[in-house]
């Protein structure tokens, strides 16, 4: 079956309609321009250049509030790795969320945002001595230990009473891409529950006079759609709490809540999650006769993904024998997710509708796999100079961006109520040259 058979809009003149759920809240069409956070995309591209990552502040804050509202009894911890940026961390602090960081570098951004140390959790399967020292120096409230080596190292570095959480691999399959499935056995994250390593880790932490065990942590993966995977995780983790014979005050269930990337995909069922996890936790704790721990959740993608839109300028169109390639001024350096996980995106041309045709949107980098979106439809007359907008690019884009081919990383522009301002500036040649000696 061809794409044209699957998508009847191909070959037809279409009225532009915005795909539901993919774009920042309040995004609208004004003629054929796209208005994000009250600012036309054409104006953003003219003012800040392309590629440009646009971030709608209201959407970020609204998603953060939705977590707090759905889970009033829980501590909601923003996964700082999903969008590392002091201004975004400030929004999270103001909304009352906590923050997780995975390195001294992410902690430096948190410090720049004056994020309260009492609400910071540090993660990472590898924390170097520098990471641990930076966490201790800032007084990060909890450090999630991930190996026996780290327990010993932290025990030696910490002063009395450093709060520690043990990362557990619960053996739960979250049915997501293998590269982002972190809850299953046989992998680098955490201590295996099934092998007994998790129990051993709990006992080792308790033996360290400078450490105070406060909780258990797990993170079963990212882009998880099924609440049932979290219920099963709760069941297993409470089993461990009951078996370890130590008072566990906190149960951190990690993040991973899915976000929609393509038309027709739904958002995470947050209300269903809150209800079912609460019921499962209370039930399991009652059965095992252990006190109910305070739950922590660590959403990243579900808070920021759909707040982001990336704008690209078309630089060349090649009409091949079987496909039309639309080449843009960005690519795998600002969005490596298609190459890493086969991630798929929707693409929209800003400024024109008309008869649609299937195209493959590719980047500017020296890899044949530098494909941003295959089998998408754009106006058949797409040409150099056109402006493209890609929704759902707020999470793990700025975070994963590289300098491949010595292309400077794009800016992040926050939009809010009709105003736009830089929160991360574009990387310049001077920035690139500064590192070379
Ligand atoms: C420990 C931990 N918590 C939270 C997250 C956030 O996941 P997501 O952005 O899918 O919600 C991650 C992502 O890798 C993680 O490793």
The radius of gyration is: 23 Å
Name the beta content range. 25-35%
**CATH architect. name of the largest domain:** Alpha-Beta Barrel
What ligand species are in this complex? pyridoxal-5'-phosphate
The shape is globular
* CATH H-level superfamily title of the largest domain: Alanine racemase
CATH topology of the largest domain: TIM Barrel
DSSP helix fraction: 25-40%
Catalytic activity: meso-2,6-diaminopimelate + H(+) = L-lysine + CO2
EC number: 4.1.1.20
Binding site for substrate: 301, 337, 341, 367, 396
Cofactor: pyridoxal 5'-phosphate
Give a description of the structure.
Pathway: Amino-acid biosynthesis; L-lysine biosynthesis via DAP pathway; L-lysine from DL-2,6-diaminopimelate: step 1/1. It comes from Lentzea guizhouensis. It is an enzyme of class 4 (lyase). The chain is of the alpha/beta class. The protein folds into 2 domains: 3-56 and 306-434, Lyase, Ornithine Decarboxylase, Chain A, domain 1, CATH 2.40.37.10; 57-303, TIM Barrel, CATH 3.20.20. It is 29% helix and 25% strand. The protein has 13 helices and 22 strands. The chain has helices spanning 3-6, 41-48, 57-70, 86-95, 104-112, 129-138, 148-157, 197-207, 227-244, 270-288, 301-304, 337-341, 429-434, and strands at 13-14, 28-30, 33-36, 39-40, 52-56, 75-79, 98-101, 120-122, 142-145, 162-169, 191-192, 211-217, 250-252, 294-297, 308-319, 324-328, 348-350, 354-362, 371-379, 387-391, 412-416, 419-424. The strands form 3 sheets. Strands 1, 5, 15, 16, 17, 18, 19, 20, 21 and 22 form a 10-stranded mixed sheet that branches. Helix 3 (57-70) runs parallel beside helix 4 and helix 9 (227-244) packs parallel to helix 10 (270-288). The longest helix is centred in the middle third of the chain and has 19 residues, at 270-288. Mean pLDDT is 94; it is low at 1-6. The structure holds pyridoxal-5'-phosphate. The site of pyridoxal-5'-phosphate (PLP) has 16 residues, from helix 11.
């Amino acid at each position: 079956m061809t794409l044209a058979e699957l998508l009847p809009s191909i070959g037809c003149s279409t009225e532009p309609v915005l795909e539901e759920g993919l774009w920042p809240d309040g995004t609208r069409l004004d003629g054929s321009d796209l208005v994000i956070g009250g600012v036309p995309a054409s104006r953003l591209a003219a003012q800040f250049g392309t590629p440009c990552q646009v971030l709608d502040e209201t959407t970020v804050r609204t998603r953060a509030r939705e977590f707090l509202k759905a889970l009033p009894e829980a501590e909601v911890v923003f996964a700082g790795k999903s969008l590392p940026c002091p201004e975004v961390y400030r929004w999270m602090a103001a909304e009352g969320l906590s923050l997780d960081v995975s390195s001294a570098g992410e902690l430096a951004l948190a410090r720049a945002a004056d994020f309260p140390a009492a609400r910071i959790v540090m993660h990472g399967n590898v924390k170097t001595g520098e990471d641990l020292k930076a966490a201790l120096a800032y007084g990060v409230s909890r450090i999630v230990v991930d190996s026996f080596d780290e327990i010993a190292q932290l025990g030696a570095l910490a002063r009395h009473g450093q709060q520690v959480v043990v990362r557990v691999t619960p053996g739960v399959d979250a049915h997501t891409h293998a590269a982002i499935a972190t809850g299953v056995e046989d992998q680098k994250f955490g201590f295996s529950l099934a092998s007994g390593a998790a129990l051993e880790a709990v006992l080792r932490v308790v033996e360290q006079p400078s450490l105070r065990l406060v909780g258990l942590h797990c993170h079963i993966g990212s882009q998880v759609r099924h609440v049932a995977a979290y219920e099963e995780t709760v069941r297993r983790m409470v089993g461990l709490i009951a078996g370890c014979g130590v008072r566990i005050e906190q149960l951190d269930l990690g993040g991973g809540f899915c976000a929609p990337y393509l038309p027709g995909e739904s958002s995470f069922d947050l209300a269903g999650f809150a209800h079912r996890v609460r019921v499962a936790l209370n039930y399991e704790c009652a059965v095992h006769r252990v006190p109910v721990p305070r739950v922590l959740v660590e959403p990243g993608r579900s808070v920021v993904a759909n707040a982001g839109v990336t704008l690209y300028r078309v630089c060349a169109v090649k009409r091949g024998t079987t496909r039309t390639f639309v080449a843009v001024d960005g690519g795998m350096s600002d969005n490596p997710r298609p190459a890493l996980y086969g991630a798929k995106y929707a693409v929209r041309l800003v400024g024109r509708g008309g008869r649609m045709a299937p195209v493959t949107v590719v980047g500017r980098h020296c890899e044949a796999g530098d494909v941003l979106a295959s089998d998408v439809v754009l106006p058949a007359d797409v040409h150099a100079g056109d402006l493209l907008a890609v929704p759902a690019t707020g999470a793990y884009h700025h975070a994963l961006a590289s300098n491949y081919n010595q292309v400077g990383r794009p800016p992040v522009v926050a939009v809010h109520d009709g105003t736009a301002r830089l929160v991360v500036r574009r990387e310049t040649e001077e920035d690139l040259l500064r590192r070379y000696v």
